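Researcher: Let's continue the batch. This sequence belongs to Naphthoate synthase, and it's 359 residues. Same format as the previous ones, please.
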Amino acid sequence: MVVAPLAGGARLFITSATIAGAKYARGCKDNNTIMTTNNTQNVASMSAARNPSPNAPPTKHRDGFELISRQPIQWQSAPTVTASNNQLSIPSFHDITYHISLDDQCARIAFDRPEVLHAFRPQTIREIQQALELATEDGRVGCIILASNNLSKYTPAFCAGGDQTVRSNDGGYQDGTETAPKLRVLDLQVQMRRCPKPIIAVVDGYAIGGGHILHMVADITIASDRSVFGQTGPRMGSFDAGYGSTHMARLIGQKRAREVWFLCNFYDAKEAKEMGLINAYYPTSELEGRVAQWVRRVIMNSPTAIACCKAALNADEDGGAGIMQMGGELTRMFYMSKESQEGRDAFLQKRAPQFRSKL
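Model: Same format as before. Here are the structure tokens for Naphthoate synthase:
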């Protein structure tokens, strides 16, 4: 057994392989259990990184984040979802892939057109919408990753925006799957905002144009150190006057957003982090493990609290629709209370409700 010091004076008793700068005991009950100086602790516990000393100095490592495993998530093809005794079949996708991890309670939706830098066409967006709906409805999923499948023979990319080969002269995009040309990606942006589960964009390579906007609309962006960000619309006769402009200005400020749109310059991961466009970036070799670490911390936290926080943060930008989303989360919680249930029961039993008796 090896004793490893943690910041702030705490110690960790190590019994096996290194993961995430901390190590997990293979004999523990689950992958979230560690051995500390105090006792066996679950990494999700607020006490996991507690220094038992009564005069321990303050440290940011008290949050226990660095105790979380960085072992890459193991994905499997999504098994059939069962909801209210009805089976939701998983469609066959062509432009994307869809996987879930039951262990980490996460879904992964990935662009799968590496030969065109994962540029999207209407079919691509429709498939992402379908996959996002599946992940939203699946009670086994608490966090959603939006990523890309890169191959070594192609330049790495997250998404290069709309596929210009199917851009129509009649407005929007048409690849033969639309009844009329439209900007379907705008519907996806709204769907991502309305999804109560956190969406993490994992960027590895180019996030350009409409792809850049999709990562901004996601709740969190984690990138590789070889990633590049930027807008190209004004150089190609296009623009996004919705979230692509307004949300960007909220993220990086009006002056910088105007620079991004007016100059159409590109920015590396370090610059994007400094601007506030992304949350973090890591070496490419560490990206999957770091994403897993973030996902596991999200899953440890209250899903209702996260859903309400997301709705509240969106409400500031989304006006009445955003307030409606936040109100819906509050109503859902109220339905769980004895007071609300008393109203339903009194109606069904044809009697006067006794609300105050349930407070």
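Researcher: Any comment?
Model: The chain has a mean pLDDT of 86.
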